[in-house]
């Protein structure tokens, strides 16, 4: 069946539930939910299971709203990129107004429910995270500056803070460190991806770092950002906020991450089909974050 791009033709095919689900970026949402849940589980006070479930639901809905509004705003750009051209809007399976209404509805519902059922601190941080992703990252930074993913990485770093706030009603040093880990992890994670899809960004006119500054600069930045990320990842252990289970895991996993990042940083430009270390770093970076936050929970349960 031939799809008609919404960027070129207002006629669209009837949207299915799968298309609305795709708008929420479920692959990204998995990491959001996991880090938020870990932030909640390591909080120093227990949370009622029903309230905890409601908080995670609100975080998932808020993340889905952010994804939907991102796709609504970038529908024209997505038609120009191989990895995004089959999304519901550029593929013509949904009209932009439906995506906009869906995203705004999810965002409002998630924030209101969080405020009424959990607490206002968690609702406020959730609101900031949605607005930051949609207005600061998507609408302002991404189309204008190669530092888009550096500053915009804050959007994905909020979930563990929200999870912690849902349980405690406040923010202390630990959730700030969790925010810092994800914030500093995002550039090397995303730039590793952008090295082998840079032509997509170039065709779409998105000023990602490899497009405007070149591969060598991007590789160097991956290496440089890995240093503070490593420090933030290990910091909870010497600060006495976690035990040896997390500390040993953080040191070991960060060592592997740093070795992969060094391989990428020290390489010369390669053809896309030979970018195996870059793909390895990107794949491992996802495993790394899951392992790090999982170790936090295990450490808390066993040693806390």
TrEMBL record:
Keywords: Cell membrane, Heme biosynthesis, Membrane, Transferase, Transmembrane, Transmembrane helix. It catalyses: heme b + (2E,6E)-farnesyl diphosphate + H2O = Fe(II)-heme o + diphosphate. The chain crosses the membrane at residues 28-47, 53-73, 99-117, 123-141, 162-185, 245-266, 281-303. The keyword Transferase applies. One of its GO terms (cellular component) is plasma membrane. It holds the Pfam family UbiA. InterPro entries: Protohaem_IX_farnesylTrfase (IPR006369), UbiA_prenyltransferase (IPR000537), UbiA_prenylTrfase_CS (IPR030470), UbiA_sf (IPR044878). The keyword Transmembrane helix applies. Carbon 2 of the heme B porphyrin ring is defined according to the Fischer nomenclature. This is Protoheme IX farnesyltransferase. It comes from Stakelama sediminis.
């Amino acid at each position: 069946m031939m799809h008609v791009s919404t960027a070129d033709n207002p006629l669209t095919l009837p949207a299915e539930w799968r298309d609305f689900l795709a708008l929420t970026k479920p692959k990204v949402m998995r990491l959001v939910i996991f880090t938020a849940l870990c932030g909640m589980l390591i909080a120093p006070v227990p949370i009622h299971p029903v309230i905890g479930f409601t908080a995670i639901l609100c975080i998932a809905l808020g993340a889905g709203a952010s994804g939907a509004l991102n796709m609504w705003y970038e529908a024209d750009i997505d038609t120009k990129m191989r990895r995004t051209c089959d999304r519901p809007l550029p593929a013509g399976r949904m009209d932009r107004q439906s995506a906009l209404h869906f995203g705004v509805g999810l965002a409002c519902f998630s924030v209101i429910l969080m405020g009424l059922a959990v607490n206002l601190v968690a609702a406020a941080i959730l609101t900031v995270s949605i607005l930051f992703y949609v207005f600061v990252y998507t609408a302002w930074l991404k189309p204008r500056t190669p530092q888009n993913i550096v500053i915009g990485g804050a959007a994905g770093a909020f979930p563990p803070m929200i999870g912690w706030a849902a349980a405690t009603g406040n923010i202390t040093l630990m959730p700030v460190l969790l925010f810092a880990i994800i914030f500093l992890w995002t550039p090397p994670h995303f730039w590793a991806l952008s090295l082998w899809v840079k032509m997509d960004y170039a065709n779409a006119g998105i000023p990602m770092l490899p497009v405007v500054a070149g591969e060598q600069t991007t590789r160097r930045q991956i290496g440089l950002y890995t240093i503070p990320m490593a420090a933030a990842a290990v910091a909870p252990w010497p600060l006495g906020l976690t035990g040896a289970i997390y500390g040993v895991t953080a040191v070991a996993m960060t060592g592997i991450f740093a070795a992969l990042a060094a391989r990428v940083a020290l390489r010369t430009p390669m053809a896309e089909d030979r970018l195996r270390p870059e793909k390895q770093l990107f794949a491992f970076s996802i495993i790394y974050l899951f392992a790090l936050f999982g170790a936090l929970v295990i450490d808390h349960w066993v040693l806390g």
